[in-house]
């Protein structure tokens, strides 16, 4: 489910950059840089688009945090997280409908705001899950965690190998190394899926632009359905 939400974020960032006048609505690091460039170069409208994205993301993060923090944290995927992701899906549905309004130039700020609010909610929900080293809306931290974890895992493997050679009759616990390996795999998958979603959205935007907003919406819908079924049968 984390990887599906990563797909949604990569798709939204690609859509917003390609079709919403070069602004990021999931990755606020890049969006802040775009805001600084727009201000420095005196491009007022470009700065306004980035400001709308930042404000929408902040609002979404606040709403998402309100939902997830009020619910009990039971299990690895609490019901409150599903509620937050469901609301994100509703907002992305409104985003998809607004996309087809005539005169998209008049609704570009609404599209920026809607997609940014949805991504802010997703970020708050993922933060509540507390998956080590994984964030679905920005990749810099995930890539850093992957490299650090990978180096740490290699070190653990070396230590375990030397230990087993020197004391073959002693059982060496391998669980920490296995956990690091699993975390590194997930972080690598997040990095790959984020980029793959951008590739797919770029292709859809060129060939079937009317359907490009369905990519993140379908991903979020699948997460909500899967999470609801899991919680129903637990």
Describe the secondary structure blueprint for this structure:
Layout: H1 2-19, H2 28-40, H3 44-70, H4 79-99, H5 108-129, H6 140-166, H7 175-207, H8 214-233
Helix pairs in contact: 1-5, 1-7, 1-8, 2-3, 3-4, 3-5, 4-5, 4-8, 6-7
Which terms would index this structure?
mainly alpha, 0% strand, 77% helix, 234 residues, Growth Hormone, Chain: A, 8 helices, single chain
Structure explained in plain terms:
This protein is mainly α. The chain has one domain (2-228): Up-down Bundle (Growth Hormone, Chain: A). It is 77% helix and 0% strand. It has eight helices and no strands. It has helices at 2-19, 28-40, 44-70, 79-99, 108-129, 140-166, 175-207, 214-233. It is globular. The model is unreliable at 163-174 (pLDDT under 50).
Largest sheet: none
Using the alpha-carbon principal axes, give the shape: globular
CATH class: Mainly Alpha
Number of helices: 8
Terminal Cα span: 17 Å
Q: How many E strands?
A: 0
CATH topology: Growth Hormone, Chain: A
Return the CATH architecture: Up-down Bundle
Radius of gyration: 20 Å
**Oligomeric state as shown:** single chain
Low-confidence spans: 163-174
Specify the structural class: mainly alpha
How much beta, percentage-wise?
under 5%
Overall mean pLDDT: 83
Summed up, the domain count is 1
- Percent in helix: over 70%
Task: Give the SSE order as H and E letters.
Answer: HHHHHHHH
């Amino acid at each position: 489910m984390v990887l599906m939400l990563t797909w949604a974020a990569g798709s939204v960032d690609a859509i917003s950059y390609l079709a919403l006048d070069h602004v990021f609505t999931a990755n606020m690091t890049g969006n802040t840089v775009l805001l600084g460039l727009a201000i420095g170069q005196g491009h007022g409208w470009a700065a306004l688009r980035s400001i709308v994205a930042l404000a929408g993301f902040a609002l979404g993060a606040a709403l998402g945090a309100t939902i997830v923090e009020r619910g009990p944290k039971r299990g690895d995927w609490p019901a409150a997280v599903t509620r937050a992701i469901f609301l994100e899906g509703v907002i992305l549905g409104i985003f998809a409908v607004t996309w087809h309004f005539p005169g998209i130039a008049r609704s570009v700020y609404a599209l920026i705001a809607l997609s940014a609010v949805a991504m802010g909610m997703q970020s708050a929900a993922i933060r509540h899950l507390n998956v080590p080293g994984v964030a679905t809306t920005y990749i810099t931290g995930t890539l850093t965690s992957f490299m650090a974890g990978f180096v740490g895992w290699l070190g653990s493997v070396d230590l375990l190998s030397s230990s087993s050679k020197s004391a073959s009759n002693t059982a060496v616990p391998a669980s920490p190394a296995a956990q690091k390996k699993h975390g590194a795999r997930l972080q690598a998958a997040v990095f790959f899926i984020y980029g793959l979603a951008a590739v797919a959205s770029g292709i859809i935007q060129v060939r079937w632009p009317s359907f490009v907003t369905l990519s993140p919406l379908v991903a979020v819908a699948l997460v909500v359905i899967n999470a609801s079924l899991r919680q129903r049968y637990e």
